[in-house]
UniProtKB/TrEMBL annotation:
This is 2-hydroxyglutaryl-CoA dehydratase. The chain crosses the membrane at residues 139-157. PANTHER family: BIFUNCTIONAL PROTEIN [INCLUDES 2-HYDROXYACYL-COA DEHYDRATASE (N-TER) AND ITS ACTIVATOR DOMAIN (C_TERM), BIFUNCTIONAL PROTEIN [INCLUDES 2-HYDROXYACYL-COA DEHYDRATASE (N-TER) AND ITS ACTIVATOR DOMAIN (C_TERM)-RELATED. InterPro entries: Dehydratase_Activator_Redct. Keywords: Membrane, Transmembrane, Transmembrane helix.
Length: 405
């Protein structure tokens, strides 16, 4: 396996990657290191919406406005040698505006005067083959570990940080494990499935040793469109807002989305490729069950594993919703409410048709079928108001739940 040296970047292309997965990129970034590329997860935030709107039509959805704005702002900063810089645009390739992200980014970068900068695509549908990033086996293996380790760390710190007696203790435990796992990923050591499962237990045990307040804060589930759900830029620091208002937030892990995508997008027929994805789905399921068991062993909350969650959601959602985040949104809402996370905040970009149909269009039905829960929807957009979004979240926090089930 390729051994990573983070200081050896002078002879490589700099690969700029927009912020997308706050909890996962500190580890998943190691999957993008190769003999050719040195990845940089962008952290610039000031004025990126304004930069994005300068080059992207405001009718495009909010994530691409932020992505393009962040990347163009980085190119304009002068920090990077334009001749040795590449941009990476991950995309699911769904039947929505997201399928046009790569084309929109190309046009935006060209308008900004950086037409020499090559843009690479990362997708599993074979889109834009002329500029698709070459993925090697060691990259996939590192990404697998980054995904599951990112999941368990996110699921645990979001429960301990709002409730810890000694402030900062959760962050220390999180940083300890980021350091350990980063070293393993860089050196290509301890990347076995047995080690991963043992680490699940060790990580959960470490978080269980954090002293928590006896009176736990109310829990709010966060569901919705992928980027808005996992990136603080997209959801306007919603986790921080909820914690500052006396709540414990729960965002479900990325492995559930990965399994949803394989289940709904890639296994529809009997081609050799679809059979591989079906095998991958079972493989992911075994790792996810081990993670869920470790989390629950130490008394923490988590969603049911993917296959159990899907069974429980039967009758509440339609499996025909396969565009974008599709039926996963409704299934996560159902899972939260059935397992005592009874307040759910659904976040999506304004004008996101898949989320407005598969998500918002389903909320009234779910609210009738699950009267013990409460669902509030929030749209974010470049022209939107943070105050309005925060007010809706605050309304969810303050409203009393119905008694009983």
């Amino acid at each position: 396996m390729y051994k990573i040296d983070e200081n050896a970047w002078n002879e490589k292309y700099i690969l700029l990657i927009p912020a997308m997965l706050d909890a996962h990129f500190p580890l998943i970034k190691y999957a993008f290191y190769s003999k050719d590329y040195h990845p940089v997860i962008l952290s610039n935030e000031d004025h990126i919406t304004d930069v994005g709107l300068k080059y992207v039509n405001n009718d495009m959805c909010y994530p691409i406005v932020l992505n393009a704005g962040q990347m163009i702002d980085a190119l304009q900063s002068g920090k990077y040698d334009i001749n040795r810089t590449r941009l990476l645009m991950p995309t699911a390739g769904d039947a929505c505006r997201g399928a046009n992200y790569l084309h929109v980014l190309k046009e935006s970068v060209r308008k900004a005067g950086f037409d020499r900068v090559k843009i690479l695509s990362l997708n599993v549908k074979g889109l834009e083959k002329d500029c698709q990033m070459r993925v090697q086996a060691f990259m996939v293996w590192r990404a697998l570990f980054g995904l599951f380790y990112g999941d368990i760390l996110m699921l645990l710190i979001n429960q301990t940080r709002p409730n810890e007696v000694k402030k900062g203790q959760s962050q220390k435990v999180w940083q300890k494990w980021i350091n350990i796992l980063s070293r393993d990923l860089k050196e290509g050591k301890n990347l076995t499935l047995g080690k991963m499962k043992r680490n699940f237990d060790r990580i959960a045990r470490d978080f269980s040793r954090i002293r928590l307040n006896d009176k736990r804060k109310q829990r709010v589930g966060i569901v919705g469109e992928l980027y808005i759900k996992y990136c603080h830029l997209g959801n306007w620091n919603m986790i921080k807002f909820l914690e500052s208002n006396g709540c414990e937030s729960h965002t479900n892990g990325l492995s559930w989305y990965a399994m949803y995508y394989m289940d709904s997008h890639l296994t529809d027929n009997m081609t050799f490729e679809s059979l591989l994805y079906k095998a991958g789905l079972k493989f992911f399921g075994s790792l996810q069950r081990a993670m869920v068991e470790a989390i629950r062993k130490y008394g923490f909350y988590t969603m049911e594993d993917f296959f159990t969650m899907k069974r429980e959601a039967d009758g509440y959602v339609s499996w025909g919703y396969k565009t974008g985040d599709g039926w996963l949104i409704g299934a996560e809402i159902t899972g939260h409410i059935l397992h005592d996370c009874r307040k759910v905040l659904a976040v999506q970009p304004f004008g996101c048709m898949p989320n407005h149909t598969c998500g918002r269009g389903l909320y009234p039905s779910l609210q009738k079928k699950l009267p013990q829960g409460m669902i509030v929807s929030c749209d974010v957009d470049s022209s939107g108001s943070k105050l309005n979004v925060y007010n809706r979240a605050r309304m969810l926090v303050d409203m009393p739940l119905k008694m009983g089930k």
